[in-house]
Design a protein that fits this description.
By secondary structure, the protein is of the alpha+beta class. The chain is built from 20 helices and 26 strands. A hairpin with a 2-residue loop joins strand 3 and strand 4. About 40% of the residues are buried.
């Protein structure tokens, strides 16, 4: 080998690019905040608020104020200790506050004794917020003084940290005001409801912490205060408010040992779904983990021991299964620990083994005590579990019948399914279409190689109000299960789905909305992983059509219509509202709704399982005033229709 390089271009040290300071964040924002869409935009607020919550967990902060200001910026104020303002030992001439805001992975959570426990799931902190803001102002009240430092253009300090005057009498704390950078984000308008939902959960998880929200933007002027003296007990009560409780009491127990602690609140309702939501250091562990595992195992053991002791289960009867016991259970399992280890697909799974044994021990001891002290409630819990057990056996029988029937039928696919020719699930799509006329149009409009059509007749069963044995006897639901091909409920295996995209195609009217809601409830309750893994979509057929010259233009919604009228004011009266998919020719349906190169699909995601659970219960439950209030509150903001 000679010293010459391959090819003509040289490759030396000068060709190695080093991204310094906050540059990597601006180059690859998705790596740090997940996306540059609405979720990433709101992630900026969570990062700043998480710092304030860490101060609360450490025992120094009692109130957090989050304000959406009229100019589009966001301000977060806490009454914690205030970020340290003295010179940082590793960076002579620079304050610790400046380092926290300009160096990735700098802060009191990495080593040192600043925090015993903290969120730290993403470990990116407020420096990332600074990097993705066009302007950020930091104010610190500490040692009797108010200090200020301003950053612009993605985190560039405008001079050193300076004292601007005395702090208000006795006050300590940190204030961060930031403007999201419009060159980074798809849109920079915060959604008040997204913010308040998250803040409410944080208040539930931090008993006694007061979180105030104010929206000062034009036409909003909203204020909300979240403070829960009952903490997670109030959280369970809130989640079950849209359901019928089995008994009035909310159970609670906690336990702590060196470096870690757990608290659990629980209450059963008369419904058929379990709602266990777990958190580690205030972070939702949507994939569960060791703490949830310990709780599930122990609650099964405790209830079976109790049922035997009280002779509610006879000697010859089998033990109750965990799923029977958890039917209708709403529980919050919240743990705090010094060094959380997060893993899994979304970093939403807690891996610390030591926490599993703590949760198990606490549940075995404290839940057993609670049952002894509350025999009436204990009896109701066991009676419900026994009923669930009988229903499960009936449902298993129905599933076995379905499997046997499928084997006899050959492929086992429903007769009305118009399948696609490709056998590669990654490129295949299933359109679930309501109504015969629309089904006919969709069949002609599809790409027969990759697009399959399953027509369903009328409205499917409301699975929120039915046990699984009844659900599995429903003809339309049987067709859905067979077509998707991955089983149902506990047997569901997302790796076996026959189509990568399951697309709901229904009319843009009230009936169509109801059908979509029924289907989404079915998928969320019976095929949860299908939703969690992003396989469920809603097609968005246009609401209006109009002629521009000889060409037909389609407009998706009222917003698109308003924008169109700004450009074509003379078209105010030619508009035609498209009431049903069946009214479209197959080529119109393909052009506007089914062609992958032209259509707009809405992906259904469930980022906050507890919230989605609550929404399903409100929309599909029996509480009509609560449902009406929810719909009226949310009707105007259909941009974020992702549950």
């Amino acid at each position: 080998m000679t010293g010459k390089s391959k090819g003509s271009a040289s490759y030396g040290a000068s060709d190695i690019t080093v991204l310094e300071g906050l540059e990597p964040v601006r180059v690859r924002p998705g790596m740090y905040i997940g996306s540059t869409g609405p979720a990433g935009l709101h992630h900026l607020i969570w990062e700043v608020v998480d710092n304030a919550v860490d101060e609360a967990m450490a025992g120094y902060c009692t109130r957090i104020d989050v304000t959406l200001l009229a100019d589009g910026s966001c301000r977060v104020v806490d009454d914690g200790r205030g970020i340290p303002t003295d010179e940082h030992p590793q960076y002579p001439g620079k304050s610790a506050a400046e380092i926290v805001l300009t160096v990735l992975h700098a802060g009191g959570k990495f080593g040192g004794s600043g925090y015993k426990v903290s969120g730290g799931l993403h470990g990116v902190g407020v420096s990332v917020v600074n990097a993705l803001s066009s302007k950020l102002t930091l104010e610190i009240d500490r040692d009797g003084n108010r200090h200020q430092l301003e950053f612009r253009d993605g985190g560039k300090p405008q001079g050193p940290l300076r004292v601007t005057g005395p702090a208000p009498s006795g006050r300590t704390g940190t204030t961060v005001t930031f403007v999201p950078d419009p060159t980074i984000f798809d849109e920079v308008e915060f959604r008040a409801q997204t913010v308040t939902e998250r803040l409410q959960i944080m208040a539930f998880l931090n008993r006694g912490l007061e979180i105030r929200f104010t929206d000062q933007r034009a036409g909003r002027a909203a204020k909300e205060v979240f403070k829960y003296s009952g903490g997670i007990v109030d959280y369970v009560r809130h989640l079950n408010s849209s359901k019928e409780s089995l008994f009035r009491k909310v159970g609670y127990y906690d336990q702590s040992e060196e470096g870690q602690e757990v608290e659990v609140a629980f209450q059963w309702n008369t419904g058929y779904y379990e709602s266990i939501h777990s958190f580690a250091n205030g972070i939702a562990t949507i994939e569960g983990g060791m703490h949830e595992e310990g709780f599930r195992k122990a609650i099964t053991n405790v209830l079976n021991r109790y049922a035997r002791k009280r002779n509610l289960l006879k000697e010859k009867e089998e033990n109750l299964k965990g799923e029977d016991i958890r039917e209708g259970l709403t529980a919050i399992v919240s743990v705090r620990l010094a060094s959380p280890q997060f893993e899994g697909q979304t970093k939403g799974k807690l891996g610390n083994v030591s926490i599993r044994s703590l949760v198990e021990r606490a549940t075995n001891e404290k839940l057993a005590d609670w049952l002894e002290e509350n025999p009436r409630e204990g009896g109701q819990m066991v009676a419900k579990a026994i009923q669930a057990s009988r229903s499960r056996m009936a449902a298993q029988h129905a599933r076995d019948l379905t499997r046997r029937k499928s084997a006899l039928d050959g492929a086992g696919l429903p007769g009305k399914l118009v399948d696609c020719s490709s056998r590669d699930p990654r490129e295949c799509e299933l359109f679930i279409v309501e109504g015969n006329s629309a089904g006919g149009s969709a069949k002609d409009a599809r790409d027969p190689r990759t697009q399959a059509i399953l027509p369903i007749r009328g409205k499917i069963l409301n699975v929120e109000k039915a046990r699984s044995d009844k659900i599995l006897k429903n003809t339309e639901i049987q067709a859905l299960i067979a077509a998707i091909g991955a089983g149902v409920e506990a047997d569901f295996d997302v790796s076996k789905i026959r189509y990568d995209k399951i697309i709901l195609l229904a009319d843009a009217d009230v009936d169509g909305s109801h059908i979509r809601t029924l289907l989404l409830t079915f998928f969320f309750r019976q095929m949860t992983e299908l939703v969690n893994n992003g396989h469920v979509y809603v097609a968005q057929p246009p609401l209006f059509s109009t002629l521009v010259g000889k060409e037909k233009a389609y407009l998706r919604d009222d917003l698109a219509k308003a924008r169109f009228l700004e450009e074509h004011p003379d078209h105010r009266n030619e508009f035609q509202r498209l009431k049903g998919l069946g009214e479209m020719d197959y080529d119109e349906l393909r052009e506007t709704t089914m062609d992958p190169t032209k259509r707009a699909l809405l992906q259904i995601t469930v980022e906050q399982a507890a919230l989605a659970d609550e929404v399903c219960s409100i929309l599909m439950g029996d509480d009509v005033p609560q449902r009406r209030h929810f719909i009226q509150t949310n009707a105007k903001d259909v941009r974020f229709l992702d549950i």
